Amino acid sequence: MKAIKTFFKGVKSESKMVRWPSGKNMAKYSFVILFLMVFFGVYFYGLDLIFTFVKGIVK
């Protein structure tokens, strides 16, 4: 029981040291992530179309 109590005291002290990003940084990072998801989605969709086209020609 003492080990569990010590663990949660450690968790509480560590959570006080966390630096959360500001709203401005969070918005910027979210935009970058969304942009990259769309970019790579379109990129891999294009590759899929190209490979499907080449497969149709070869077959």
Fold blueprint:
Layout: H1 2-16, H2 23-58
Description:
The chain is an all-alpha fold. The chain has a domain at 23-59. It is built from 2 helices and no strands. It has helices at residues 2-16, 23-58. The longest helix has 36 residues, at 23-58. The relative contact order is 0.06. The mean pLDDT is 95.
Any key phrases for this structure?
single chain, mainly alpha
Helix content: over 70%
Rg on CA atoms, Å: 24 Å
Mean pLDDT, to the nearest integer, reads 95
**Major sheet characteristics:** none
Concise description?
The chain has 2 helices and no strands.
